[in-house]
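Researcher: We're teaching a course module on how sequence relates to structure. For the next exercise, students receive a sequence and then see the predicted structure as tokens, so they can try to spot secondary structure elements on their own. Here is the exercise chain.
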Amino acid sequence: MENLHEVFEHEIKDLYSAESQLLKALPKMAKGATNEELRQAFMNHLDETETHVMRLEQIGKLCDVVVRGQKCKGMEGLITEGSSLLEEDKNAARDAALIPAAQRVEHYEMAAYGSALAFANLLNLSEAATLLQQTLDEEKAADTKLSEIAERVVNPDVPATDKSKASR
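Model: And here is the predicted structure for the students to work with:
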């Protein structure tokens, strides 16, 4: 990379790959959740993720960026880590573990969208910046929703200790 537009292009491709990977991971997370509200949050975010992919394709057209062809290894790692939780027993504790795994994904996306937005603004790509801001706002809202579900519903349902281990 030699200029800001190339850095911007790299971010857009990385985000496209990340969002495309999430399209496959979110249904699995939803299916693995025991709490209905958490399951619905995952499914709602799947719908948003489809929109995010379309926006990135739109940005690609606006900015002459081919969005395909790059693999986001960061998202791949986060999804692998989160997917390993689905091998645990299906219970409230697993739901409590799925939430921070999903929030790590959201934080990764917020960092990437924030950077891409900053680059778009510096490059005077106002239409792209508007689309990136919309998605960034949705990622922040998803993170907030996950925190709210964790604090209000999921975490209080998880036993604080394993009584059989606590008595040793």
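Model: If you want an answer key for the exercise: The chain has a mean pLDDT of 95. DSSP finds six helices and no strands in the chain.
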